[in-house]
């Protein structure tokens, strides 16, 4: 009965492929499995801590910076006036590690400030009578400094305040947004409670200038040590030392070549922490594959810096130049047509905006100060000035300033690049923004008013506008400094 076909059978079906046996696996798959197991068996944190500098000889920081920090530590614990230190420098240049190694050398206990995630205080026992209050982060920070200075750790054998040091690296956001609050906290702590040395470690240069202006440094006797990026030879030496140590411990079967280590050091630009992380993933993930394969090199085989690397280091002046002197590339819609129908910018406005999105007011202020001398047509000037006016409005004190400031920077950058159709190709000096100068003078005057007239509980602006002009009328006792200030700023 060939004409009868069961409905449960399909003559056209293809049998399922047989599963390959273990011995038929691809070698690449086996290598990937082994590589992933090695990465999971050797955790990143433990590996980095294993190669963390333990002694001064292990440090690759400039020896002069180590001596400066040693000198300050010796003076600060021997009744030296300066008990507050600010260590600045780029990320990964060894600021914190150097401090920790020297504190271990001198037997100093480090008390580190960690910004709390929650500042709520629960009162009561959870019944209806209990309530919740919120403590100001600045008060929490000041309370930490006072307690760390006043009390000793019961788990430590120290009996006095001369063998501990306060370490601050992560500051509350309220200090970043309002540096004046931080100035008040440091001034109060320095005048009334400063007994234990305090070290601030900062990587952002602009943040350091805002939090520690010259007036505050002079008033509170604050010292500063600036660390430089790790040089290429020192980074290469540190990486080679790690590789030799891993080879002696027999934790790796293959080690990177000197060319790979040189490439890692060149890519990190003085960031030793980043170089160590790249070395870890190169050893345990890629099987010591050569980095940046195919990239241009010099005669000695050293990796050359490309335009991408240069963009990462683009400073403020190059960014302003790309906006005020925009370069354009012709784009032809039809390859057979020789007439240009459109254009595009050589340097993407979006990349420029992303690069300076953290300091929109500072960058836009430079544009406003220097754009006029690069235009050749008054109509183009009118269009660009209109866009800057819109940007200035968006850069105001809005509630959602993070979003509005990015929009303001975008309008300023793209508006000027589109408006300046034929920029003036000649050298012009770059002028600093008057807005920055005005804000600096305002901060200095506010600080001076607050120091001269501490008895007035008003803001510095209200004191200057509503109080100082009328003080000359009243017959009262003033200090010489107050009399001089009143004479210069009161009504004639």
TrEMBL record:
One of its GO terms (biological process) is mitotic DNA replication checkpoint signaling. Keywords: ATP-binding, Cell cycle, DNA damage, Nucleotide-binding, Nucleus. GO terms for cellular component: nucleus. It is found in: Nucleus. This is AAA+ ATPase domain-containing protein. The keyword Amino-acid biosynthesis does not apply. Pfam families: Rad17. Belongs to the rad17/RAD24 family. Gene3D superfamilies: P-loop containing nucleotide triphosphate hydrolases. It comes from Clastoptera arizonana (Arizona spittle bug). GO terms for molecular function: ATP binding; chromatin binding; DNA clamp loader activity.
């Amino acid at each position: 009965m060939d004409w009868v076909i069961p409905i449960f059978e399909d003559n056209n079906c293809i049998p399922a492929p047989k599963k390959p046996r273990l011995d038929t696996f691809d070698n690449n798959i086996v290598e990937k499995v082994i590589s992933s197991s090695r990465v999971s068996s050797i955790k990143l944190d433990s590996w980095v801590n294993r190669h963390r500098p333990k002694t001064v000889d292990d440090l690759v920081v400039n020896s002069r910076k180590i001596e400066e920090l040693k000198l300050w530590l010796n003076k600060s614990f021997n009744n030296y006036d300066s008990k507050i230190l600010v260590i600045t420098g780029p990320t990964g240049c060894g600021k914190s590690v150097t401090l920790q190694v020297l504190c271990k050398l001198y037997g100093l206990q480090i008390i580190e400030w960690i910004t709390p995630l929650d500042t709520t205080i629960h009162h009561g026992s959870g019944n209806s009578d209990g309530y919740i209050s919120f403590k100001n982060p600045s008060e929490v920070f000041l309370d930490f400094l006072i307690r760390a200075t006043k009390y000793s750790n019961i788990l430590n054998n120290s009996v006095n305040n001369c063998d501990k040091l306060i370490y601050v690296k992560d500051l509350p956001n309220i200090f970043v947004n309002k540096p004046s609050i931080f100035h008040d906290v440091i001034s109060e702590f320095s005048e009334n409670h400063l007994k234990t040395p305090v070290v601030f470690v900062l990587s952002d240069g602009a943040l350091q200038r805002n939090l520690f202006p010259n007036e505050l440094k002079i008033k509170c006797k604050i010292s500063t040590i600036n660390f430089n990026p790790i040089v290429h030879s020192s980074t290469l030496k540190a990486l080679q030392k790690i590789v030799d140590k891993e080879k002696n411990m027999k934790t790796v079967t293959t080690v990177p070549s000197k060319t790979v280590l040189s490439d890692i050091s060149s890519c990190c630009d003085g960031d030793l922490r980043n170089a160590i992380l790249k070395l870890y993933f190169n050893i345990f993930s890629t099987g010591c594959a050569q980095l940046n394969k195919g990239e241009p090199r010099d005669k000695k085989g050293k990796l050359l810096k490309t335009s991408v690397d240069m963009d990462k280091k683009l400073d403020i002046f190059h960014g302003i130049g790309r906006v005020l002197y925009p370069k354009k590339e012709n784009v032809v819609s039809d390859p057979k047509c020789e007439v240009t129908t459109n254009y595009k910018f050589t340097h993407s406005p979006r990349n420029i905006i992303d690069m300076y999105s953290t300091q929109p007011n500072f960058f836009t202020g430079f544009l406003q100060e220097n754009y006029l001398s690069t235009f050749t047509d008054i109509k183009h000037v009118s269009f660009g000035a209109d866009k800057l006016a819109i940007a200035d409005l968006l850069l105001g004190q809005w509630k959602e300033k993070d979003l509005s400031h990015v929009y303001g920077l975008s309008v300023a950058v793209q508006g000027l690049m589109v408006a300046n159709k034929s920029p003036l190709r000649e050298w012009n000096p770059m002028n600093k923004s008057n807005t920055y100068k005005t804000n600096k003078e305002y901060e200095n005057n506010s600080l001076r008013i607050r120091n001269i007239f501490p008895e007035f509980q008003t803001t510095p602006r209200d004191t200057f506008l509503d109080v100082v002009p009328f003080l000359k009328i009243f017959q009262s006792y003033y200090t010489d400094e107050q009399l001089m200030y009143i004479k210069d700023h009161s009504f004639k």
